Amino acid sequence: MKMEYKLLGNGSAVILTRQPEIVYDELYITFSGAPSDATAIIETSGDSLYRKLSEGTCAAPANKLRGEVKITVAILDGTTPPKRWTCEELKAEALKDGGILVCPNDLNLPQTIVDLRIENQEIREENATIKGELAAIKKRLDEIMEAYDFT
Description:
alpha+beta, eleven-stranded mixed sheet, 1 helix
């Protein structure tokens, strides 16, 4: 199975493949937009797996995926704080046939919507401030142009 994330400029990442899948061996995860030196940190059931990305992709063993699976992409080059992206969580549940059902953990969607609405309001306020400053600059420039003699 292949899970695909898109890394965003705000330090988060969203899952592009949202349909549940059954994994038997390894879960392959692709991170679109990941730097070449990035590492995926996969946390599940108290274990942390560090996987160096190769062409934006890594693999996690299915038998290590249980419950809520937290994923972070980070550049571990010694800089403090490291550049990182917090990814949407996955949910993994063992099946009777030995497979693991993996799907996006959508239980946190209400909080995600709240966070997006707050961010949207902040963007609107910032946009209004910028529009006001731009109008003041335009007005001042018009005043300068009126007073300047081009002849």
